[in-house]
Design goal:
Order of helices and strands: EEEHEEHEHHHEHEHEEHEHEEHEH
Distance between the termini: 28 Å
Low-confidence stretches: 221-226, 296-300, 309-314
Shape: globular
Number of strands: 14
Radius of gyration: 20 Å
Mean pLDDT: 84
Largest sheet: 6 strands, mixed
């Protein structure tokens, strides 16, 4: 495969003063779904900002499909970026947010309108598109950002924590969309903390720790390695007592307790796949699930465990 079919990092380092962002990164990312995984501060967002040209490397070179990242006008004809941070023009509706991007991109009115509705439909936001973003839930804001990032038909889609805040049903639909895009030949580059989803959907995984790439490639068997290392997940919902009772009936759930703020349930599970399937069922039977996310302390220990396993095998 030619270099202009890939996202290539050549000995790339980024320092913020004396603080290390990433160091000596060499990568050649092919089409398909690539997941960047690692604890907070590992360098995932820095890597994404570098490949989208939002920051420049302290040393080294980056090319996206053969295009230098210091050529933004050319680069963003082929790249879409959805950051983890919410930043919307005041008073905008979802439709206006996507449409205005396409007009800035250079589309005429009719084309921009057509592409806007196609992108909004793909992320399941047609009904609320005319409402103001200020009234959207976290999950709806995530989906309208995703619509904007893909509305111009990019070849490389860079998504920073795109599944945060999505309920289980929308999460499953979004993962299916990523798979469809990848099957069409797109680069879909995702950062995520949710290990079972990374292992399930990724064609390639890049594992980062403290600014270094410590493993890359088709890392298989992550879930089987995790059988003796329960994952802790925080589920926000409208009926935490009911949810806790239902999930605790499962053999794979080690612990389920109502969060100290009373607005969710902390669950420890040895089988994340089974647990997420259970959540899908519960969401269809009277419990409104607002968000699902790993608990950071537990996730950090999981990555330390995985990184230790990788390093010990070298």
């Amino acid at each position: 495969m030619r270099a202009n079919d890939r996202v290539v990092f050549e000995n790339v380092s980024k320092f913020y003063g004396d603080v290390l962002g990433v160091n000596r990164v060499n990568l050649s990312i092919p089409p398909g779904i690539t997941s960047l995984v690692g604890p907070n501060g590992s360098g995932k967002t820095t890597l994404m900002n570098l490949m989208t040209g939002l920051i420049r490397p302290s040393r080294g070179h980056i090319r996206v499909l053969g295009i230098r990242t210091d050529n933004p006008e050319e680069l963003f004809r082929y790249v879409g970026y959805c950051t983890q941070f919410d930043s919307f023009p005041k008073g905008f509706t979802g439709y206006q947010f996507v449409y205005s991007y396409l007009r800035l991109y250079g589309c005429a009115h009719a084309e921009a309108e057509d592409l806007t509705w196609k992108a909004i439909e793909r992320v399941g936001m047609t009904e609320p598109a005319r409402r103001k973003i200020a009234g959207y839930s976290k999950g709806m804001r995530q989906r309208i950002k995703l619509a904007q990032s893909m509305c111009h038909g990019p070849s490389v889609l860079v998504l920073d924590e795109p599944l945060n805040g999505l309920d289980p049903l929308v999460r499953a639909e979004t993962i299916a969309l990523f798979r469809t895009l990848a099957e069409d030949g797109m680069h879909v580059i995702i950062s995520s903390h949710i290990l079972h989803e990374v292992d399930q959907i990724s064609d390639q995984v890049i594992l980062l720790s403290n600014g270094y790439v410590v493993a890359e490639g088709k890392i298989r068997g992550v879930r089987s390695e995790m059988q003796e290392h329960p994952m802790q997940i925080l589920v926000r919902c409208n009926r935490p007592g009911v949810l806790a009772a239902k999930v605790f009936e499962q053999d794979s759930v080690v612990e389920a307790q109502i969060h100290k703020d009373g607005l969710g349930v902390l669950v420890k599970t040895r089988d994340p796949d089974k647990f997420y399937l259970l959540l899908n069922h519960i969401a269809q039977n009277g419990v409104t699930i607002e968000s699902v996310a790993p608990a950071d302390d537990d996730v950090n220990s999981v990555y330390e465990y995985l990184i230790g396993s990788e390093e010990s095998s070298r």
